[in-house]
Every structure is written in C-alpha cells, then in structure tokens.
C-alpha cells in the first residue's frame, strides 16, 4: 500500500505584525528620524500597562498606581489648547479597544488631551507629525 505523504500547499497569507513589532518600529522611527525633525519627541514615552503579569506582580503594580486602559504612548507637549497627545497603538488588523480603554480615552479627551487610536506604526507617525507639524 502506497502512502501519500504529500502535504497540501499552505496558503500564502501575509503575516500581520504583532503589536510589539508595531511598537518597536514606531520607536525606531521616533529615535532615528522623528527626533531630528521634532526635538519634542525626546519626551515621547511608552506606558507599559498591557504586559502579561503574574497575580503578585499585577497586584503590586496596581497598588503603585498602574491603571488598566491607559494608552500606550504619551507626548507631554501642548499644542494650542491641547495639553498633550496620547496614542493607543494597535496592530493593523484585529487590534481591539476594550470598554475600559474607551472610557479612559474619553476622560483624557475631556481634560484637553488629544487621544488617538493608531492602527500600525505608520498611522502613529502620521498622527504625531500632524500634531507637531
């Protein structure tokens, strides 16, 4: 009896970058290109709230003030009546914003901050350039 060991060809699906890959690409742009054009980007920073943590570390960080739903990035530089820029970075496809995040984003806007959800690092760059430009 002859066994057919041939495998079905895999569909050639384009890989979608993870949120971490998008974040690394954004920060590479900030550090190599963005800061030369916009010195204010020296103040641009990541808020590491989304990492998976064990229960003990999570409780310790919560006691220290970590708040779920806060956007990923903050640029504490005002423009006109706007106090600062917050960016929630999502991967280009299937990145979701949860209810807690939506509530916090709305609250930040009420306090005269610009708040944006960027789908991918290139969209984040456009938001930053428009804000600073």
Describe the structure.
There is one protein chain. This protein has 133 residues and is of the alpha+beta class. The protein has one domain: Trna Endonuclease, Chain: A, domain 1, CATH 3.40.1350. The protein is 39% helix and 13% strand. It contains four helices and four strands; from the N terminus they run H-E-H-E-E-H-E-H. The protein has helices at 19-37, 55-63, 99-110, 121-132, and strands at residues 45-46, 73-75, 85-90, 114-119. The protein has a four-stranded mixed β-sheet, sandwiched between helices. Helix 3 (99-110) links the parallel strand 3 (85-90) and strand 4. The longest helix is centred in the N-terminal third of the chain and has 19 residues, at 19-37. The chain is globular and about 40 Å long. It starts with 18 loop residues before the first helix and ends with a helix.
Which short descriptors sum up this protein?
4 helices; 39% helix; Trna Endonuclease, Chain: A, domain 1; alpha+beta; 13% strand; globular; 133 residues; four-stranded mixed sheet
């Amino acid at each position: 009896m002859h066994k057919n060991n041939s495998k079905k060809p895999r569909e050639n699906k384009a890989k979608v970058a993870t949120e971490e890959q998008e974040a690394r690409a954004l920060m590479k742009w900030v550090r190599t290109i963005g800061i030369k054009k916009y010195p204010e980007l020296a103040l641009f920073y990541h808020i590491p709230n989304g990492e998976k943590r064990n229960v003990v570390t999570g409780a310790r960080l919560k006691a220290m003030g970590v708040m779920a739903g806060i956007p990923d990035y903050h640029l504490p530089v005002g423009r006109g009546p706007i106090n600062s820029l917050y960016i929630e970075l999502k991967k280009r496809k299937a990145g979701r914003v949860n209810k807690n995040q939506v509530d916090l984003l709305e609250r930040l806007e009420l306090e005269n901050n610009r708040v944006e959800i960027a789908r991918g690092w290139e969209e984040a760059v456009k938001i930053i350039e428009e804000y600073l430009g």
